[in-house]
Amino acid sequence: MTKHIAGTDRAARPDAPDDESPPALRFALDGYTWREITYLLANLPMGLVGFVYVMTVLLTGACLTVTVIGFPLLAAGLLGARQWGRLERARARALLGVGVPEPTPLPLRRSGGPLPRLWMALKDPVGWRTALYGFVRLPWGVATFTVTLVSLFVLWPVLPFIARGLTQVDRAMVRGLLSPSDELERRIAELESGRGVVVDTAAADLRRIERDLHDGAQARLVNLAMGLGLAKEKLLEDPDAAAAMVEEAHGEVKLALQELRDLARGIHPAVLTDRGLDAALSSVAARCTVPVGVTVALRTRPAAAIEGIAYFTVSELLQNISKHSGARSASVDVWRADARLLIQVRDDGRGGARLDGGSGIAGLAERLSAVDGVFLVDSPVGGPTTITAELPWRDREDESRPR
Length: 403
Known about the structure:
- It is a single chain.
- Helix content is 61%, strand content 10%.
- It is built from 11 helices and 6 strands.
- The chain has helices at 31-63, 70-96, 114-122, 125-153, 159-177, 183-234, 239-267, 270-275, 277-287, 304-325, 361-370; strands at 2-5, 292-297, 330-337, 340-347, 374-378, 385-392.
- The longest helix has 52 residues, at 183-234.
- The protein is elongated.
């Protein structure tokens, strides 16, 4: 099963690992104490590597911000600092039992062009806190390495107490500087990414409408005007030819009207506005090349924006079934569960659908994630395929309330 969740590029965030409590202290070098000693002795080389990285990559990038390459270098340095933080969290988890969860990845692929991605990386709080961690670790690493090494040969009886006291400071540093951003920071990043997706999607839709008008109805109306002009010239000298031209122009008018209706349906179908999802989805299902059963179990209608997203999601999924699935039948189910609108589309086709399969599914997942939706694909090779989409429920009357 492939899962796409709103806000990041975004795989579901892993559960926080267990935070192990240190055992009670005693005058004995047990296994836990040796792990603490190992951690303290490794502080010096790890602190040295982190300090060198911060001073060379990040400081160089900061100094070069007056040039073109400075900001990209600084952004790359912050992304690298995130990976350094991942290594340090793993070391603290293995040797000290500090269960700090991994931060949410930056949703760079859904942040629009290069400049939005650059800005997101530059203001990443996780990267900056990790850089600060690397900067302060060198003097602390020198101190802990020296004290631990001396204690191994001089203060052996009290070494467990010394190691525990020093590693408590390490635990505090890891939790304070290498922990994920708080929920507000994470949601801000998700919403900024979602805004970029919405803007890009709206721009693409406008380009599609412009192209369809230019290549379709507009070109047909230009030909219609030219044909009627020629018919007008021949009206007196060759009435039969003029009548044939008018008949041909009449056919062009019908085709132009049909193209305009199809274009309007692609923007927002009238049946959806007038009669809601049940009638609109039944209309879409009737145009599918395979039999589709539609069940809409909604007592009330959601907000128009949510209703539109649900309609176009089902519409594109049914188009994919027609073009790619080889299915004999399909079904669409829509219902409400608490504050979510759920959509499930099934088919008995060949399966193998993926978010990166190039059939528009990835675009649907991004659109849903931009409005805090969820997109699930369960499509084993050989079928069947079940695609579930969730959208936040907003009542239709909420749109007219003052904000």
